[in-house]
Design goal:
With 506 residues, the protein is α+β, with helices and mostly antiparallel strands. 29% of the residues lie in helices and 20% in strands. It is built from 14 helices and 13 strands. The chain is globular and about 60 Å long.
């Protein structure tokens, strides 16, 4: 499937897709004790402002890529969050930024990532350029003029999807991205967090000279002298910021950005720029099961506000698989979700095309936040995606099999799948794979295994002509296993919602 830009009109006019969007601002040890009401209000107001701006872009025809990267770029400009201007420091007192972006379809590279950046003001806009310029980078060189070939070699990311360090910043400069002096990224709270962390880890604190150099510079900056320091108690956001968006063309995009772990070893690469670990977007073509005896996944999710137990899913997943999940996660608490809109079975059963096979376009995008090393060990976002969208028929058929993906009758049977809220819970929810990966180190002061995910799942059903009986449905989901995760989304009624603690979803 080719991605139609918003300016292009489809040949037919099936029901329109309602855009969806969700944003997260980090997860971790967030409690009411370390997040006083004024600070909580400031974070919530910022997230809602950014969310509503990006949502307005989507509602006016912008692509998911534009909306998601715009939201993240605004988070990078805000000192409240661990990215861009508000990023944490390494052990050496330096800044090393990371960002990534991925779409469910529409670009040859599908995704791109950057890391070890020290000067790029908005890493997310840089990584967007890497993705978009891939349209030319991956064109065959046959027939290319010598000067065109030379230009590609000097100002191109070539076919690479992850670039880093000084060479990446050279490209950013050549492409016109804004580069800043490292001092731009300094904030008083983060610097004090850095110093306290070093003192706690070692009595041999040797950064006094570096501290004087930084603070002497900013003592002349009237905008920075009014900054409030960190008392060692109040919450400071950790982890990645991110956005997942669905546009009116049915394309999903995930965009993420971070400064990484506080006092990380210089040169450390986290989950944020690692495909499948801290981000993932995918699209597949599956056959929708046609069984009159079993309720659809969508009917079940749309009619039950909070699924009470795994037994409720017995008609969707096999008994053996349900038993396996129950044995692994005996106290499973299913996560929250926001369906875009649901449909009754009568809407599809009464279709004049009832006898025709129904094609299923299924897309997912996920962004993770939390302890990046734990996400890396599990390829967490890819793992969650595969539980809901198995890697069955993602790519176009070879020339010897023309039309295979375009003919639903020739698709292989769909394997058992899980709804996105359950799939993400099995990975990032309480008792999930992330938590279990920490073993007996869970909640022992290392923050290992802690984190959360946000995502959107999109499905489109219809007959071969894509006319009568065509249904398009989007669903926003989130889950976390720690005390809090900043998340903001637009619900199906168009209202902005923002939460941080788990009990706010009850």
């Amino acid at each position: 499937m080719e991605y139609r830009r918003p300016s292009e009109k489809p040949s037919k006019a099936p029901p329109s897709i309602k855009p969806r969007i969700i944003v997260h601002g980090g997860a971790g040890n967030i409690t009411r004790a370390n997040l006083p009401p004024p600070a909580q209000a400031a974070y919530k107001a910022t997230l809602v402002r950014i969310l509503e701006h990006a949502s307005s872009l989507l509602n006016n025809g912008a692509s998911a890529l534009t909306a998601a990267t715009t939201a993240v770029s605004q988070l990078e400009e805000c000192a409240l969050f661990n990215c861009g201007h508000g990023a944490v420091f390494t052990r050496a007192g330096t800044i090393e930024l990371e960002a990534s972006v991925m779409v469910s379809r529409g670009y040859k590279k599908r995704g791109a990532a950057v890391s070890l950046l020290k000067h790029v003001r908005n890493p997310i806009l840089f990584v967007k350029e890497v993705l978009e310029r891939g349209e030319d980078d991956l064109e065959p060189e046959t027939g290319m003029l010598e000067e065109e070939h030379a230009e590609r070699e000097t100002v191109s990311a070539q076919g690479h999807v992850h670039i880093s360090g000084p060479e990446a910043e050279r490209l950013a400069k050549a492409w016109g991205l804004e580069l800043m002096d490292e001092k731009y990224f300094w904030t008083k709270k983060r610097w004090e967090e850095h110093k306290r962390g070093l003192k706690k880890r070692s009595s041999r604190y040797q950064n006094d000279r570096e501290e004087i150099q930084w603070e002497d510079h900013f003592s002349t900056d009237s905008l920075r002298t009014v900054e409030v320091g960190w008392d060692g108690h109040d919450y400071l956001p950790q982890g990645t910021v991110g956005c997942v968006a669905l546009d009116d063309q049915g394309v999903l995009c995930v965009a993420t950005s971070t400064g990484g772990l506080t006092n990380k070893l210089p040169g450390r690469i986290g989950d944020t720029p690692t495909f499948g670990a801290g981000f993932w977007a995918d699209e597949g073509f599956l056959r929708k099961p046609r069984s009159s005896s079993a309720p659809s996944v969508h009917r079940l999710l749309g009619s039950v506000p909070h699924l009470p137990a795994l037994q409720s899913l017995s008609s969707i997943i096999s008994p053996s698989f349900a038993s396996t999940i129950s044995s692994c996660l005996p106290q499973l608490r299913l996560p929250n979700y926001q369906p875009l809109h649901t449909y009754s079975e009568s809407q599809t059963e009464k279709s004049s095309h009832e006898s025709k096979p129904i094609a299923n376009i299924h897309a997912i995008a996920l962004s993770g936040t939390g302890n990046g090393d734990s996400f890396l060990r599990l390829s967490a976002c890819r793992t969650a995606s595969a539980l809901s969208l198995p890697p069955l028929v993602h790519f176009p058929p070879p020339p010897s099999e023309p039309g295979r993906l375009n003919n639903p009758r020739r698709l292989p049977p769909a394997p058992p799948t899980l709804p996105l809220p359950l799939a993400t819970h099995l990975v990032a929810g309480p008792g999930g794979l992330l938590q279990r990966s920490a073993g007996d180190r869970w909640k022992k002061g290392t923050f290992e295994g802690e984190g959360g995910m946000i995502g959107i799942e999109f499905k489109a059903y219809g007959d071969e002509e894509g006319e009568e009986g065509f249904v398009r449905q989007g669903q926003v989901a989130w889950v976390f296993n720690c005390s809090g995760m900043w998340r903001a989304w637009v619900d199906e009624g168009g209202e902005s919602r923002v939460r941080v603690f788990a009990d706010e979803d009850e």
